[in-house]
User: What shape does this take?
Amino acid sequence: MVKAVRARGASRTSVWLEGRARRGGRGGGQPSSGLDRERITEVTVRLLDAEGLAKFSMRRLAAELNVTAMSLYWYVDTKDDLLELALDAAFGELRLPAPDADADWRDQLRRLAAEYRALLVRHPWLSPLAGTFLNIGPNSLAFSGTVQRIVRRTGLPERRLTGAIAAVLQFVYGYGTIEGHFMARCAGAGMAPDDYFRHALSAATRAPDAAEVLQGSVTFMAARGDDTVAQMLDRDFAFALDLLVAGIEAMVARG
Assistant: This one.
């Protein structure tokens, strides 16, 4: 969905405006044989997945591609342009439901929400960038258009559609972002999610002020019959999404 442009560098708009996404960068350095913008974007995504947003730099990317940093500016104007291209490339991984007038909007909304959640977990760097740029690349727009098409079929009046979209997408965005951070912490600790969760819970319950509250969480998990972290995350996500769907249905029924 379209987000606000970052405050700093207010003159910057988007790589997708003014033809920059098609014509290449400012011409610094020299074009490299066997290198193009698609290849640069692909390696950018891979580096962001492996090392995170904080460690990403044009110098690091150039080393990965075995070219000079200046040669990258033949293809993009700035690092921000490249991050915006990587963001849209990631949105291109989403499997969007095809237009189908006979399909149940509830099923399509659930499938799309699951896709978005998985994308956020797979690429933890995506959520901060999605809140930074305009998100008007072709893949981002395809995602936004699909969301709008599905929510229009709920029966809600026009004036309520943006609220419904916000409720669903911001829930998924938050859920997927937190889940992605958790998985990154597990990977950083070299532990499986279940092992990390048990270790963290055991350590946290030693804090006197936390023990009572965390014990309540353990009780909730036992009541659900969760055996693994993956089951807990999946069940909570599915139920929370059911609550949102039920809320939309209730609002439609109220007229």
Summary: The chain is about 65% helix and 0% strand. The longest helix spans residues 158-189.
